[in-house]
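Input (structure):
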């Protein structure tokens, strides 16, 4: 089963390369064809006004993508939260809370006094991480994001950031920012389930700005998109942090070994960041994206503690481990967005704010 899963993942990102993955690809292509038709029909119904779409009284900015998997939406939303906070604009974040078990129609992650209203397991790791990093900014989770937007309006938000909102057409927005991985922007070029695209590539024309993440010097404009775009990359922190958020004093790690584990879509950059600290030995443990830390996973990590000096994980995983007592230190590495030039983004953000003043 793992071989089939491995072939499927590689097939959706790189195309069929074995007989087995070719069988998968051609078997799934008819489903992809009908899925693409369905997504085009859905957009047409919203565009024609035949399906209701909520218009908020304040600016709404969506950060999303057109592929499944990680492109760096959470660091981008975090960047925008900090940007607007510096501008003195009271903003809020609304997320679906992927993977969360909350039952309320709308849940605010952290109350105004800094008290947790829901746990990371209930609201999802990414909303909880955003709320913990920006405790002064309300973060809401709502399966019907219209209700989350309305809750943010009632609580006095002057601007709303819609996390992972590009396909969520039930809420209108003033700016659509789409993130693409510069290394592999469209996977194998097919929509689900034969590929990783959530909708056909032509949907990219709805974007007001494309941000190419994980960019190198060779990164260029995405195919079939002629609008403004930015090159960006994820910059890991130069220091380790405890699970409680305290910065660890810099030290010489050349005689220490560590177990690095990550429940994110693409962990290679994280593992390289760990190696850059100079450990004598790094054991890499990639886990499923949005990994739930049940007792089996925790026991696996706890058993490994006898063989290493410390554990290191991502911020996204760390928010789900605050109550775990590891027998050795467990640290996290933060990530932030860096841009080649921010002027196109800043101009669009100012245009949105000016329109609503």
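Output (sequence):
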């Amino acid at each position: 089963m793992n071989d089939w899963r491995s072939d499927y993942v590689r097939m959706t990102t790189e195309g069929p390369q074995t007989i087995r993955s070719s069988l998968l690809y051609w078997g799934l292509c008819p489903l992809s064809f009908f899925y693409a038709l369905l997504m085009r029909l859905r957009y047409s119904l919203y565009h024609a006004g035949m399906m209701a779409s909520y218009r908020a009284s304040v600016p709404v900015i969506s950060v999303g993508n057109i592929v499944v998997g990680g492109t760096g939406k959470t660091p981008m939303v975090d960047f925008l939260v900090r940007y607007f906070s510096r501008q003195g604009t009271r903003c809020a974040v609304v997320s679906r809370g992927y993977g969360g078990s909350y039952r309320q129609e709308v849940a605010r992650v952290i109350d105004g006094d800094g008290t947790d209203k829901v746990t990371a397991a209930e609201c999802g790791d990414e909303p909880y991480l955003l709320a913990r990093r920006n405790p002064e900014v309300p973060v809401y989770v709502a399966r019907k994001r219209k209700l989350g937007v309305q809750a943010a309006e009632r609580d006095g938000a002057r601007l709303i950031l819609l996390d992972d909102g590009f396909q969520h057409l039930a809420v209108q927005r003033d700016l659509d920012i789409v993130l693409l991985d510069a290394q592999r922007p469209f996977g194998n070029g097919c929509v689900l389930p034969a590929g990783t695209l959530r909708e056909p590539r032509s949907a990219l024309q709805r974007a007001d700005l494309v941000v190419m993440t994980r960019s190198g010097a060779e990164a260029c404009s995405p195919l079939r998109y002629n609008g403004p775009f930015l090159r960006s990359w994820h910059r890991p922190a130069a220091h380790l942090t405890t699970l409680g958020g305290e910065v660890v004093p810099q030290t010489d790690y050349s005689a220490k070994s560590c177990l690095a584990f990550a429940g994110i879509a693409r962990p290679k950059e994280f593992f390289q960041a760990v190696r850059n600290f100079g450990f004598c030995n790094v054991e890499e443990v990639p886990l499923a994206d949005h990994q739930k830390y049940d007792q089996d996973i925790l026991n696996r990590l706890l058993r490994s503690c006898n063989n290493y000096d410390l554990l290191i994980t991502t911020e996204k995983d760390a928010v789900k481990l605050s109550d775990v007592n590891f027998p050795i230190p467990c640290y996290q590495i933060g990530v932030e967005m860096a841009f080649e030039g921010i002027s196109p983004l800043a101009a669009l953000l100012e245009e949105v704010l000016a329109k609503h003043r």
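Notes: The two ends are 56 Å apart (CA to CA). Residues 19-47 form the longest helix (29 residues).
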